[in-house]
Amino acid sequence: MLLLVLSSLSHYRSLFLHSTHSETDMQARLFALLVTAGLLLLIDFYFYQGTKDLWKSASATSQTWLSRIYWFISISGIALIGSVIIFRMQARAESVAYWFFVGYIILYFAKFFGLIPLLLDDIQRILRYLFQLVTQTPSAERGITRTEFLSKAAVGLAAIPAVSMLSGIVFGAHAYLVKNNRLVLPKLPKEFEGLKIVHISDIHSGSFWNKTAVERGIEMIMAQKPDMIFFTGDLVNNLATEFEPWKATFGKLKAPMGVYSILGNHDYGDYFPWETPEAKAANLQAVINHHKSIGWNLLLDEHVVIERNGAKIGIVGIQNWGTGRFPKYGSMKKATASMPELPVNLLLSHDPSHWDNEVRKEYKNIDVMFAGHTHGMQFGVNIPGLKWSPVQYRYHQWSGLYKEDNQQLYVNQGFGYIGYPGRIGIRPEITLHELSSTNEA
Question: What is the mean pLDDT of the chain?
């Protein structure tokens, strides 16, 4: 494991030293590395101190080796996680380094939850000590001590997120869900009544690890017999080469009235340590070429007019436009320039924050915006009557249909995944929109 980490560090150190990074950026990452390493060490030490009594009945030799193994795993994990922070390491799902990284993330989540009973243990120790100090009467313990009980509880509690995250990888990553949504557009021409649009988002092809399952998802899309397909960005994690093994698979997505796509924040390669600006630009062009090579109509701040039996509607596609740390590459002004007046206009925009921050304010002619980006954080609950995910504290609109006045937004939970290669409670989504001028079925 250490050889793997050192090899990765050597490769990405070379990239880091020869890439164009500001001194401020390097200092920020070094600071993040120190803080993260310190927190992880603290978690490791606290969990170790709280649970080491569980193997006290073992021989001295066994205890020594168990301790060494624990700290070897911990230090290796911190080294790998640190290399991701400082060198922005990128690893595909088929690489051993990727799965080691995932394993360590799961391990630290588990330890973090396991700290809860250990903290309770320390609190009760302090209270007991204070009580004894005041009353000067030592308390007697019989049988299993409360400390031993809570140590076992720590391990048991840590197992819950570990098992959940493992099951989310095995069973949740590709548990594709077809959601049916009736989009009511009062001004919809009768010629477009009943038009079927399949909407997918956030493929993140560099994260896929089960080709058979992904191909099953493609079959589910085509089984909906869509008239059009919309893809709202993030074809790759960073590198255009991630999509190479998947071109034939996603090239199967066809629709009579076309497949329309846009770029997401990950498609620009902003999260990779490029050696030169030219290399980054070439990567972006390669991503653009992927869309075209499989027959998708990539809209880069532009619009198209769709005609059906003489009637027309508009489709607008914009490059990534986000708030906070996410870039604003897109231009609605450019995308809608010389756009004719049409009864219905559909917008493809990756980041749902675009809706509140520009679309609703300045572009009242947009009837529906289709977005993705949030993934539902790949964790939460989204069932009839209960909809929650931590991502809702960052994005007010994070999954499903939203309406304000005469405008609508639909946020797709994503087809793929990134970082954690699974999903817990938030399934990968295939949305089937049926256009209608009325609520009547």
Answer: 88
